[in-house]
Amino acid sequence: MNTLADLKNALRAFAAARDWDRYHTPKNLVMALSGEVGELADLFQWLTPEQAANAMADPELAWNVRDELADVFHYLVRLADKLDVDLVEAAFAKIERNETRFPADSPKPLA
Amino acid sequence: MNTLADLKNALRAFAAARDWDRYHTPKNLVMALSGEVGELADLFQWLTPEQAANAMADPELAWNVRDELADVFHYLVRLADKLDVDLVEAAFAKIERNETRFPADSPKPLA
Amino acid sequence: MNTLADLKNALRAFAAARDWDRYHTPKNLVMALSGEVGELADLFQWLTPEQAANAMADPELAWNVRDELADVFHYLVRLADKLDVDLVEAAFAKIERNETRFPADSPKPLA
Amino acid sequence: MNTLADLKNALRAFAAARDWDRYHTPKNLVMALSGEVGELADLFQWLTPEQAANAMADPELAWNVRDELADVFHYLVRLADKLDVDLVEAAFAKIERNETRFPADSPKPLA
């Protein structure tokens, strides 16, 4: 089974084979991430909450959602790699901070 | 060592303990993802390419970058979980499609 | 009454007085625009459609919405100024193209 | 000469003719704005600062930049209209607040 580490390495190899590391600077990758999140927003923007919740029941929409989630993830993993950040470790460290910021009886979600 | 599956489960437990699943609809999570990517853009927007490339050498900026990458990752993992998408699998499937779209001698990066 | 041209000039003067033109490059301004749209998303992300439709009835939220709309507009006007684009003219030209793309009996909104 | 008020009215008429007001809720319009800003980021993401500064010298890129700026402006004007916010007035009020937050000898731009 593929892991996040495998994905990081596969994306490195993909970029190296195309000489794209010169484009994949942190600043450019943040912009690319904005672009892909924008495409994800595009898929959901006119849906009602109910339609959005059932998005994966529509095969064409489901395919597009998977495709855009993959693009977002690609750039997030590339960006973290370039910045030498371990995403899973950073995410667990943030959960710990959020446990303090938002105690378990916290009425509103984090902004 | 923590895995992406561990993170998905930890985020599920965090939301469940706060009764936040009612907020974590696909549409809302896409907006939350946009918000967090916007905060990441905030950190890099006024940096020169050189400053951005050295972002992690500044301890305060490095801390903030890790913090924002964690927030982006949280919402991406939550969204994929709610949509029942395996992020790593979707990302590898997209690499395969990109191999076709951008042969190894492709001069320009994917838009 | 202030016009869009007045606003463009006021923002020019504001940046000039702080020597901020060196930061206000097109690429940086696009990132700043992403950041501010992210803050706008933040305000609406957990609201139900009904709460969002009544956002301006809550004085604190209304203040924040005006504040964030202003920030988005600032960067959009600055960016268009730096690129020498007349926003109103470009917007009317696009309406004309959309009249063709989406005839008046068009069932779905533009993506 | 067309004004911002003319544009607001033209966009209202465009939506009304297509019965699109049911889609143009504040929450949906914020998402649409994110989507269009993402497309703008797309145009600039791989450009060097120098290439970005000269974007309008390339006729095809210039056309696309105008097109995307128009889309961003459309949704911003629609959103402000739906929320009953006067964009120019809100933008001038924010300049006043920024005058206080960032005195004229302020060394760094607003985040």
Automatic annotation (TrEMBL), chains A, B, C, D:
One of its GO terms (cellular component) is cytosol. Gene3D superfamilies: MazG-like (1.10.287.1080). The keyword Phosphoprotein does not apply. The keyword Hydrolase applies. InterPro entries: dCTP_Pyrophosphatase, DCTPP. GO terms for biological process: dCTP catabolic process; DNA protection. Keywords: Hydrolase. Signal peptide: none annotated. GO terms for molecular function: dCTP diphosphatase activity. Transmembrane segments: none annotated. This is NTP pyrophosphatase (Non-canonical NTP hydrolase). It comes from Saccharothrix violaceirubra.
